[in-house]
């Protein structure tokens, strides 16, 4: 066969080339993505501080951002311990959600009977409010941290399960035919066709689960209300509320939100790195 | 042409569970090394017929025999085919090289050898240097070339193509037609090419099976007695125009019937 034409080569080169010039290692659109929300955030915090000062709102009603910052610095030692406790439960729950969600989804994809038998129970687990069943789990399970982990996992695992199940069943029909034509076995179809197809779906589910694992852990901590040194951020929030230490309460809240943001950004980054070479969602649109 | 029979269809039919008859009573013998075109309007069962030959669909009537082939462990005929779909049907997560190597690696060929053979197949379709490219970085015509390379990497006896160039622009389609013929003349596989384009069928094939719809059946068979290589001189010749007219008339009759 002859070589392909120069115009076709040029077209392919244009498709492969980055379209924007980098400034300090980041493209203008990436700068916009960072700066626009940052500036909006600063304006919001500034307005908040001004409002609190001008209206002379007492800190036990609404502390200003500076007071919250001071509380965060002053109580960092105890807050950091709690942050670490919450982080451990969140990450353990997320890892369990990812692994068990993926394994269950693969089982569902392999056997219709298993899927039909188990899926309704997965849905029931998902729609039952965690606040309502957390007390039961805390009573039934002796180790409080295991109980918290189970609660966080229940909240977190469903997006991974449902998304991955959807992904495993979203294969290109022609590619399925192709694998059949070449007499691929079940294992080859799973490993080389269905799992790669499901990858973007799994990662999208994981991003949702990351936030939910944190929420699940916090909600369970609220219900458990454990005291002592080994308690998480939720307990610090409760405790500060009882003591009317509202700036400290806000400081704990800031840590919770910050953790959620870091989890989301980290999982988005992982998703981007895994998909950037081939999936439309991770590819900059050409103009 | 007219080597010994590679595939023999006897009274082949396909009736779907809904009762729709997609294909009825097709008798057709495909000779080793020939280039055959299946031509017809949409809904005439030409793709279904191709899929039944490939073993992707089962015939509900008649037999599809492979006189010279043995049987595999499952008792199915050892088909030894390559298939090119209407869409390139590439794995978006894999490089061009890995896509082409897929049939070999599924068959258990060692990675190093599979990749060497895949690189050669890519070279054969004019894509040397694009081994590491991902499908999304390739143009439509280049993706189709990758798809052809993948179908030919196992050096199959029979290459089945289901309207492979229908979605491409005319210039690209002409170029791919020429390159496909060059490959066929060099490697002498047997080719069955499904198309709805009279011009494409006359340009490529030695024999054209015209099909009619509802139910899908063979309406006419036309031999194109032009030699190879065929190129732009053939495409602009009176001979080519004459064949096109004859095939168009048969197609018109088939659609009116």
UniProtKB/TrEMBL annotation, chain A:
Residues 83-271 form the ABC transmembrane type-1 domain. The keyword NAD does not apply. One of its GO terms (biological process) is transmembrane transport. One of its GO terms (cellular component) is plasma membrane. It is a multi-pass membrane protein. InterPro entries: MetI-like, MetI-like_sf. Keywords: Cell membrane, Membrane, Transmembrane, Transmembrane helix, Transport. Its main location: membrane. It is found in: Cell membrane. The chain crosses the membrane at residues 30-48, 91-109, 121-141, 147-168, 214-238, 250-275. The keyword ATP-binding does not apply. Pfam families: BPD_transp_1. Belongs to the binding-protein-dependent transport system permease family. This is ABC transporter permease. It comes from Plastoroseomonas arctica.
TrEMBL record, chain B:
It comes from the Bacteria. Keywords: ATP-binding, Nucleotide-binding, Transport. Coiled coil: none annotated. PROSITE patterns: ABC_TRANSPORTER_1 (PS00211), ABC_TRANSPORTER_2 (PS50893). Residues 7-238 form the ABC transporter domain. GO terms for molecular function: ATP binding; ATP hydrolysis activity. CDD domains: ABC_NrtD_SsuB_transporters. InterPro entries: AAA+_ATPase, ABC_transporter-like_ATP-bd, ABC_transporter-like_CS, ABC_transporter_ATP-bind, P-loop_NTPase. Transmembrane segments: none annotated. It holds the Pfam family ABC_tran. Belongs to the ABC transporter superfamily. This is ABC transporter ATP-binding protein. It comes from Plastoroseomonas arctica. The lineage of its organism: Bacteria, Pseudomonadati, Pseudomonadota, Alphaproteobacteria, Acetobacterales.
């Amino acid at each position: 066969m002859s070589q392909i034409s120069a115009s076709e080569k040029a077209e392919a080169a244009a498709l492969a080339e980055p379209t924007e010039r980098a400034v300090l290692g980041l493209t203008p659109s990436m700068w916009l993505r960072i700066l626009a929300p940052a500036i909006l955030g600063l304006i919001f915090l500034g307005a908040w501080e001004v409002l609190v000062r001008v209206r002379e709102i007492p800190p036990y009603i609404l502390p200003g951002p500076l007071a919250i910052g001071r509380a965060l610095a002053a109580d960092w030692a105890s807050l950091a311990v709690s942050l670490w406790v919450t982080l451990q439960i969140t990450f353990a729950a997320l890892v369990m959600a990812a692994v068990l969600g993926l394994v269950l989804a693969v089982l569902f994809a392999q056997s219709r009977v298993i899927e039909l038998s188990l899926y309704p129970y997965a849905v029931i687990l998902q729609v039952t409010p965690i606040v309502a069943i957390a007390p039961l789990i805390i009573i039934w399970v002796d180790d409080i941290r295991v109980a918290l982990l189970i609660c966080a996992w229940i909240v977190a695992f469903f997006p991974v399960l449902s998304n991955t199940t959807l992904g495993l069943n979203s294969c290109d029909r022609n590619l399925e035919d192709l694998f059949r034509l070449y007499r691929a076995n079940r294992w080859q179809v799973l490993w080389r066709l269905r799992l790669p197809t499901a990858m973007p779906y799994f990662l999208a589910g994981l991003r949702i689960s990351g936030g939910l694992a944190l929420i699940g852990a916090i909600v369970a901590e609220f219900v458990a209300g454990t005291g002592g040194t080994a308690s998480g951020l939720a307990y610090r929030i409760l405790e500060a509320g009882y003591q009317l230490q509202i700036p400290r309460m806000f400081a704990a809240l800031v840590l919770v939100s910050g953790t959620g943001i870091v989890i989301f950004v980290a999982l988005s980054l992982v998703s981007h790195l895994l998909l950037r070479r081939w999936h439309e969602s991770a590819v900059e649109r050409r103009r | 042409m007219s080597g010994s029979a590679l595939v023999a269809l006897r009274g082949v039919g396909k009736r779907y569970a809904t009762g729709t008859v997609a294909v009825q009573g097709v008798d057709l013998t495909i000779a080793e090394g020939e280039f055959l075109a299946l031509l017809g309007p949409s809904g005439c069962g030409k793709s279904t017929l191709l899929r039944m030959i490939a073993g992707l669909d089962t015939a509900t009537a008649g037999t599809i025999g492979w006189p010279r082939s043995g049987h595999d462990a499952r008792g199915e005929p050892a088909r030894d085919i390559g298939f090119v779909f209407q869409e390139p049907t590439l794995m978006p997560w894999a490089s061009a090289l890995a896509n082409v190597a897929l049939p070999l690696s599924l068959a258990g060929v060692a990675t190093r050898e599979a990749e060497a053979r895949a690189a050669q197949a890519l070279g054969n379709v004019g894509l040397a240097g694009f081994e590491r490219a991902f499908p999304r970085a390739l143009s439509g015509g280049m993706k189709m070339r990758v798809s052809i390379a993948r179908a030919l990497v196992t050096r199959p006896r029979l290459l089945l193509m289901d309207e492979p160039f229908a979605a491409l622009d005319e210039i690209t389609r002409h170029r791919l037609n020429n390159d496909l013929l060059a490959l066929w003349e060099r490697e002498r596989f047997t080719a069955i090419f499904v198309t709805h384009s009279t011009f494409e069928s006359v340009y490529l094939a030695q024999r054209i099976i015209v099909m009619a719809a509802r139910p899908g059946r063979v309406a006419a068979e036309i031999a194109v007695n032009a030699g190879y290589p065929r190129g732009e001189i053939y495409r602009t010749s009176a001979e080519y125009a004459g064949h096109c007219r004859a095939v168009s008339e048969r197609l018109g009759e088939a659609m009116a019937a």
